[in-house]
Amino acid sequence: MTKLTASQERELHDAFDLFDSDRSGRISRNELKKVLHALNIKANEKELSQLMAQMDADGSGEIDFDEFKKVMAGSFFKKYSKQELMSAFKKFDADGNGYISTKELSDILSRMGRHLSRSDVEAMVKSLDTSGDGRISFDEFCNLFD
């Protein structure tokens, strides 16, 4: 695994925290399943078991941050193609209007088990919304991956 900068480590920990909905410091099989479902990624029980086995290096049945980091760091910080980013964007843009609204972001976070206040979700949108229109465009979404 390549050495991560402090900023990359924080970003990866933020992603880990989205998975770790009960804040236990570990990702359970059920939490992983919820995230995959929220992102409309179809995984049957066998595939879920394989993914857990791949990530759970110590065989504890859960994924701690170090295990998550070892598996995810390489792909998390790679440069994505426009096609890959568009595919991810469309998972968030439920109504297909070309923007991620506060409601769409809130809905997907809820499906992931993260029930944030409206003001927290609005703050997330505002942090990405460089145009000031109250929603996240594809280009603003892509800025997350630069």
From TrEMBL:
Record-linked Pfam families: EF-hand_7
Gene3D superfamilies membership: EF-hand
SMART domains (UniProt xref): EFh
UniProt keywords, alphabetically: Calcium, Repeat
Gene Ontology molecular function: calcium ion binding
The EF-hand domain, residue ranges: 7-42, 43-78, 80-115, 116-146
Recorded GO CC terms: myosin II complex
PROSITE patterns in the cross-refs: EF_HAND_1 (PS00018), EF_HAND_2 (PS50222), S100_CABP (PS00303)
SUPFAM superfamilies linked to this entry: EF-hand
InterPro entries documented for this protein: CALM/Myosin/TropC-like (IPR050230), EF-hand-dom_pair (IPR011992), EF_Hand_1_Ca_BS (IPR018247), EF_hand_dom (IPR002048), S100/CaBP7/8-like_CS (IPR001751)
Protein name: EF-hand domain-containing protein
Lineage of producing organism: Eukaryota, Metazoa, Spiralia, Gnathifera, Rotifera
